[in-house]
Structure formats: C-alpha cells, structure tokens
Amino acid sequence: MNKKKFEKKQKARRIGTLIIIILFIMLVIEGVLLVSKLLDKKSVEEQLLEKAEKYEKPTHNIEWRLNIENSSVYWINKPNHEQTFDGCGVRIKSTHIKINSDGLRDYEYDINKSNNTFRIIVLGDSFSFGWGVELDDVYMKVLERKLNNLSKEIKYEVINLGVAGYNSKQEVELFKLKGIKYKPDLIIIGFTNNDDYDPEIEHEISLKLKNNKSLKAKHDQSNSKQPYSAVNKLMKEHIKDVGFEANWKKTVEKAFTDLALISKSLNSSVLIFAMKWESKEQLEALSLFVSETENWILKTTSIPNQGPILVIHKLDPHPNEKAHIIYAEEIYDALIDHKLIQSLSKNQNE
Q: Can you tell me the distance from the alpha carbon of 220 to that of 201, in angstroms, rounded to the nearest whole number?
C-alpha cells in the first residue's frame, strides 16, 4: 500500500512539474511576442500609410489651392477654378470641384442682399469645403434647401467659406477678407479637431518638411507636396509642449474674440457646430467661450466619430453624404430651438 501511495505521489509530482514547465514556456513565448510587438509598434500614420499602399492612388489631386505670400490665410481657393478630384494619398470617389469668382466652393451670390433674404455664412475646413462629396451634398447646401422649404416669403442663402486645411485663425481671417461684405445674419463655424493649430507654426513646419525627400516619398499627400500626417504629428507635439491652454488662447480664443467683435457690429448671431474634437478640453473651452459671449451658441454633433458607414473611405475620415445630411439636420434643429431663423434680423431692413 505504501509503495502504491508513493508511486501515486511521484506521478502527481511529475504531472505538476510538467504543467509548470508548460505554463512557463507559454509565458516565455507570450513575453517574446509582446516584446516583439512593442519593438515593431508603428504609429497610426505609418499603419495608415501601409494600408494606403494596397489601394488605388488618386489621379486628380488638389489643384484648386492658390498660395498667397505674406498673407494671414496663407492660401485660398483659386477663383473660377474647375476640376475633377479623387483624393489625396488614397483614391476616393471622383467629385466635381468648381470654385466661383469670389474663390468659394459655391454658386455665385450677389453681394447686395434683398430685404427678404436671410443670409448665413459658413466658416470651416475640408469638412465644410465638402471634401469627397458633390457641392449639393455638403451640409450647408442641404441646410439651405431645408430652410427654403420653411417659407416662401423669406429666401435663405447659406454661403460656403470652407477651405481645406484651414484652422480657426485662418477661417476668421478669410471672413474678414471675403465674408463681411455679404453682411450675414448668421455665422456658422464648422469646428473640427485641428482648428486649434497655429497657422504660423504649421506653415514653418510645412516648409521644413517640404524639402525633406524621405518624408516626401513617404507622406506625399497634396499637390504642394506637404506631408500632412507628419505635420499633424509635429503640431500635436507643439501643442503638448506649449500647453493646451496657452495654445488655445493664442489660436482659437483670439480668433473667436475678433469674430465676436465683427459679428456684433453686423448684428449677427454665431453658431459653433462642433463636428469633431480632439479632447474634452476643446469642448470645455468652446462651452466657456460661448457662455461668456453674447449671441454665440454651441451645438455638438451626435456623430463625432463617424464610423465606417459615414466616411468617404476607410482611410479617409472625411464625412460622406449620409454624415452631411445628419449635420444639416442637427444644425437646422439648433436654429429652430434657439429661434435664430424665426424672423428677419434688424440688419435686413437697413
């Protein structure tokens, strides 16, 4: 009996030892794989670029951009330009780009405004420009049609001042150059996550990277040969270095303060429509500014992270037609809720 018990104990020990050895080997393998993964870890930009290689390259790149030397906006849309566009870096569905005589991706509008016209100016970047969608599918054009179904007595004009690549400072500077003359009753700002970039710093970074051949080959995503992903990475590092609050005050807050003075002189309300944001800090800063500024309103979209069914391409997160419809409906609801379009504003009768 003692011999059998001893053998059983020995067998149990051998089995236990074997299990421990197997578990140890598994842990070692898992550790090796983890270290290997960490050593081979790539940035989001690098992963996207690798994936982009598997897709077709665009054949009609950005040609509508006109660089302006010694200007606070740095570039504008080229007046009277017309082209087909099918993406940067990765090929997307072809769209027709037509810039009007005033350098806006929109139809022609008379500068003079009739007494029965309610005019809205939209400021923004590529989301508002309508990157990857036809003009009539961009949210402000959807909104314009929706508003004009409200009344036969009032004509609504929603004019697009969106320019691809712009940030808040550039958007406000463009409004000074081109928007004021239209005497808008309402100004809509299409806010996105990189609107707090400092255009001066961004321009300096872009110039440095422009002459870097290795970066050109790897990140070439525009007709000006500027590596957007590299610029974005360095701009985020810059904001981190100077601090969110200091950067925000110099960029967004300063630009919005300028616009608040102008909008007050025009007797115009301002709606910030936040379509995409980088952090909770951005939303809190927007909310604070609006709470302290008369006739300014903040509306946030329900789809800040659009998801695959609401973007133009897996590797290009710009909103598609469905997303633009949602934007238009959300802005429309905000205008109704805040009674911004119930009656003609004072400056319409001046």
A: 20
Query: Which residues are within 8 A (CB) of 322 and not within 5 positions of it... i.e. 6 or more apart?
Result: 309, 310
Q: How far apart (Å, rounded) are the C-alpha atoms in residues 224 and 261?
A: 35
How many CB atoms neighbour CB 339 within 10 A? 9
146/192 Cα distance (integer angstroms): 23
pLDDT > 70? residue 215: no
Cα(247)–Cα(239) distance, integer angstroms: 6
User: Any idea which residue has 């007709």 for tokens?
Assistant: 223
Q: Nearest CA to 312 among 47, 55, 124, 64?
A: 55
Distances (CA, A) of 55 to 8, 52, 197, 204, 314: 63, 5, 30, 31, 10
Q: How many CB atoms lie within 10 A of CB 63?
A: 14
Length of the chain: 350
Q: What is the pLDDT of residues 12-63, one digit of tens each?
A: 777 777 788 888 888 877 776 766 665 555 555 455 555 555 678 889 989 9
pLDDT in tens, 122-179: 999 999 999 999 999 999 999 999 999 988 899 999 999 999 999 999 999 999 999 9
pLDDT, tens digit, 9 for 90 and up, residues 94-122: 999 999 999 999 999 999 999 999 999 99
DSSP-based helix, strand, coil % in the chain, nearest 5: 50, 15, 35
CB within 8 Å of 16: residues ≥ 6 apart: none
Helices (H), 40-167: 44-52, 126-129, 139-148
Of 236, 191, 198, 232, the C-alpha closest to 215 is 232
**Nearest alpha carbon to residue 223 among 58, 103, 101:** 58
Q: What is the mean pLDDT of residues 187-209?
A: 93
Phi (first) and psi of residue 203, to 5 degrees: -65, -40
